Amino acid sequence: MEQILPHLDSVFSIDCVLFGFDGKELKILLIERNEEPFKDWWALPGNIVGPDESLDQSASRILYELTGLRGIYMEQYYAFGDPHRHPQGRVITLAYYALIRLGGDKELRPISTYAKRANWLPITDLPKLAFDHQKIYDKGLEKIKRRIKHQPIAFELLPEKFTLTQLQHVYELVLGKKLDKRNFRKKIVSFGVLKELDEKQKGVSYRAATLYRFDKRKYAKLFGKEISF
Amino acid sequence: MEQILPHLDSVFSIDCVLFGFDGKELKILLIERNEEPFKDWWALPGNIVGPDESLDQSASRILYELTGLRGIYMEQYYAFGDPHRHPQGRVITLAYYALIRLGGDKELRPISTYAKRANWLPITDLPKLAFDHQKIYDKGLEKIKRRIKHQPIAFELLPEKFTLTQLQHVYELVLGKKLDKRNFRKKIVSFGVLKELDEKQKGVSYRAATLYRFDKRKYAKLFGKEISF
DNA sequence: TTACTTAGTGTAAAAAATACACACTATATT
DNA sequence: AATATAGTGTGTATTTTTTACACTAAGTAA
Q1: Helical segments of B94-215, H only
Q2: For residue A229, is it within any domain?
Q3: Chain mean pLDDT for chain A
Q4: Which end of chain A has the least Cβ crowding within 10 Å, N or C?
Q5: Whether the predicted pLDDT of A186 surpasses 50
Q6: Would you say residue B5 lies in a domain?
């Protein structure tokens, strides 16, 4: 019913679960709150949706303000709107996740005002979270677990050039289980969306692995949108 | 960012894609609008979220008000919030879908005030829809296509006792393709979540088929939540 | 009794998933 | 130069799953 537009107090926010991978661990970005309620608690970064922004634009802006990153794959996945989720009033929040390759060059730009600090914390050892943010995170993880099996999102967590072992590592972390090396390589290569490069890994003290690149064009041609990793 | 609660004008609504199955066709419930904007257009039924309702509660209430039905499987699947999706102001809407067995006993209760009438229309022949409702519907169909492959939602569209042919028919309609009878039966029976009854179909002018029932307990024990139809 | 309509059933072939172990190669160490 | 170390890279056999395919059985209607 959309023909009446009553004047209502309702606040609409976006919270982001930013998954980051540094080559070793899967982490998420959390901020330490500097204000009540939940002062000193860790929370998911988020913000209010602006009046003239689309939801996706808003999510991108928030990510940019918090990390300085642009062009990151973000996806809306659920709305949380329990009337009592925020102690001070009704706030409906939309959850987005993003996948980010950490380390290397770029540092996070200092976080905006409302937090003491921001940190990437490993998902294996998360603190208690403010509001219903644990629930939001849980659902986000569940979502990418499902999605990584059918869509090429793993590459978003890796540098442009990566080894098959690194790729397998990402799958293992997200899915939370070990995979067989030979079967994994057989399958992933058989899709034909990886381009084997003439380059090798550098700076390792053992046999250097071959580097690969995800071939977006080929992927789009072959599958449109779907695949089964 | 949830510690500040500015006074903002924003309207938050829920729109429902109600899929119904009458034994023959897959339909959705549409209302014919009686007010501007989009007067005389067909639109998805929806309403404003009340100040003290959870989102799921709100969706259930809206469904009840429109159809008189309770206890229906409903699921939130996406938020639509383009700043210009509603010509008169910012309205963010949450889309829910529901699956409903039509025909038989219950009639729809008369629709509340804001519509001229409501109708179940076959999805194969939908009119132009108001607002961005075509997009909302498209995404909803996509969603149940995906979900019917992994979760036992097909049964929501069928009476409690059903034949395997009816079940196959639902899958074919949702997925939009023909399935092989023998393979379908083999697979669906092999999951062990159907209970074969001692009853047969009645009132048909040909050999009556055996009736089955979906066994929720067994399903829960076997799979928790997942399956692959 | 016959015609009609849908129910119900099995098998063989192909494809996909799984389980499993060792030799190779680059570097670092002595 | 020889050796230790650590991760790379590869093949095959078995099992499971998916696919393709056509006829007989049972009940109703005329």
Answers
A1: 133-148, 164-175, 181-190
A2: no
A3: 90
A4: C
A5: yes
A6: no
Specify the pLDDT at position A60.
95
B229 confidence band (pLDDT: 50, 70, 90): confident
Does a structural domain hold residue A128?
yes
Q: Which two tokens stand for residue A176?
A: 């939370």
Q: Are B55 and A10 within 8 A, CB to CB?
A: no
Q: Domain range for residue A198?
A: 160-223
Give chain B's domain count. 2
Q: Is the CB of A182 under 7 A from strand C?
A: yes
CA A164 / C1′ D1 distance in Å:
34
Q: Looking at this predicted complex, what is its ipTM? A: 0.91
Residues B167 and B203 in one domain: yes
- Are B205 and B126 in a shared domain? no
Whether residues A105 and A169 fall in one domain? no
- The number of residues in chain B equals 229
A152-177 pLDDT tens trace: 999 999 999 999 999 999 999 999 99
Pick the last residue of a domain from B148, B165, B193: B148
Dihedral (C-alpha) A148, A149, A155, A158: value to the nearest 10 degrees?
Answer: 70
Q: Determine, yes or no, domain membership for A25.
A: yes
Q: Is the CB of A150 under 7 A from strand C?
A: no
Residues A94 and A182 in one domain: no
What letter represents residue A68's amino acid? G
Nearest chain A Cα to B35, which residue? A3
In the block, tokens 């997942």 appear at: B226
Q: Does residue A10 belong to the interface with chain B, where contact is any CB pair within 8 Å?
A: yes
CB-CB contact of A42 with B44 (8 Å): no
Same domain as A135, residue A182: no
**In this prediction, what percent of chain B has a pLDDT beyond 70?**
91
- The nucleotide minimizing the C1' distance to residue B163's CA is C7
From chain B residues 109-128, the ones with a CB under 8 A of any chain A CB are 114
